[in-house]
Design a protein that fits this description.
By secondary structure, the protein is an all-alpha fold. The protein has one domain (4-40). It is 64% helix and 0% strand. The chain contains 2 helices and no strands.
């Protein structure tokens, strides 16, 4: 039972870190253009 006092806050911190990382990536424009990199290989230059 005492291990829950360690695991639950650790899980909350990891989840908060994931949410913060996603929010940072979304604000910095990482998800703005998801189609062009996939289509780039189809164009022969």
């Amino acid at each position: 039972m005492s291990v829950l006092f360690i695991v639950v806050p650790l899980a909350v911190l990891l989840a908060a870190g994931g949410v913060l990382a996603f929010a940072w990536a979304a604000r910095s424009g990482q998800f703005d253009d998801v189609d062009t990199p996939a289509e780039r290989m189809l164009h022969d230059e």
